[in-house]
Write a structure and sequence with these properties.
11 helices; 2 domains; Alpha-Beta Plaits; globular; binds adenosine-5'-triphosphate; binds magnesium ion; four-stranded antiparallel beta sheet; alpha/beta; Rossmann fold
Length: 323
Amino acid sequence: MPIPIVQTRNLTKIYVRDVIGTEFGRLKIRLKNRKVAALKSLDLDVNEGEIFGLLGPNGAGKTTAIKVLMGLIFATEGTATLMGKPLGDKSVKASIGFLPENPYFYDYLKGYEFLNYYGQLYGMSAAARRKKIPELLELVGLSHAEDLPLKGYSKGMLQRAGLAQALLNDPKIVFLDEPQSGLDPFGRKEIRDLILSLKEKGATVFFSSHILADAEVICDRVAILSKGRLMNVGAMDEILSARIKAYEIEAMNLSEDMVSELEKMSERFIRRTKTVLFVVEKEEIALAIVKKIIASPGHLVSYTPRRETLEEFFIRNIEPQNV
Ligand SMILES: Nc1ncnc2c1ncn2[C@@H]1O[C@H](COP(=O)(O)OP(=O)(O)OP(=O)(O)O)[C@@H](O)[C@H]1O
Ligand SMILES: [Mg+2]
């Protein structure tokens, strides 16, 4: 078995918040410590070359997990390795790209200057930067804005600039914390395509999101976090196919008598222009309907077991949290 490119064991992060309580009138100031367990004993294995989605509602601990892996904060307990080496290893850092959740950039820098500056931080030569930066600006759709200061960028443009920054060093593994936040549907699709193209080039992509539909399309595997705890991890179809939500049967040219008979057997019935659709929860009833349609003069157009979407899985399994 190859060593996972990202591995965490018992990774735990407890934040201690100082809460200052004041009581005016009698002027009393109390300093209380409130502990927040943001990550609870997280065990994760991410394989090389996969697109791995860390999913969960607000406050689930996604950013905390990424910050620990990036060495920006320290775990309270547990261990983690990146590319088989302990966190903080310099050679590993050189092979990592990172887009933080709310990136703050020097906004008087122009798009090109910004990437040039980060390229220098990565230790890239001037020639390498001259070659790479235009390619990246093109890749994220910002070539037209290379001479514009970042303070004139929209949120979506800043997100793209941040993404270009994360790819400067041709990373082996890219960590993206909510890469699609602030983007319109076109922008989200572009980021999805970009993530897929990174995978094609052999990179591993580890990203967090609560835009479940996007994760559903591109992730090889996902981990679902809730209140700092890992609820589920696996390939999307493993997590979801376990539960077929309903069967949809579409037919045409049925007699009205047949339609009303089948409607009575179904949970839902939809009349479309040319066809009728029966939605049934139980498989045996769905199959009985199919048999009746086949035996009638009508036509069966389609029979589709509809699995639960990730969105539905989320809502069924995970409570929203107080953040
Ligand atoms: N610096 C901090 N000090 C104290 N508590 C914190 C700190 N950062 C995060 N938390 C708490 O840790 C928990 C997890 O937060 P985190 O930012 O990791 O969640 P998240 O899954 O990234 O959420 P979101 O989807 O909103 O970005 C939350 O309850 C949050 O309030
Ligand atoms: Mg976050």
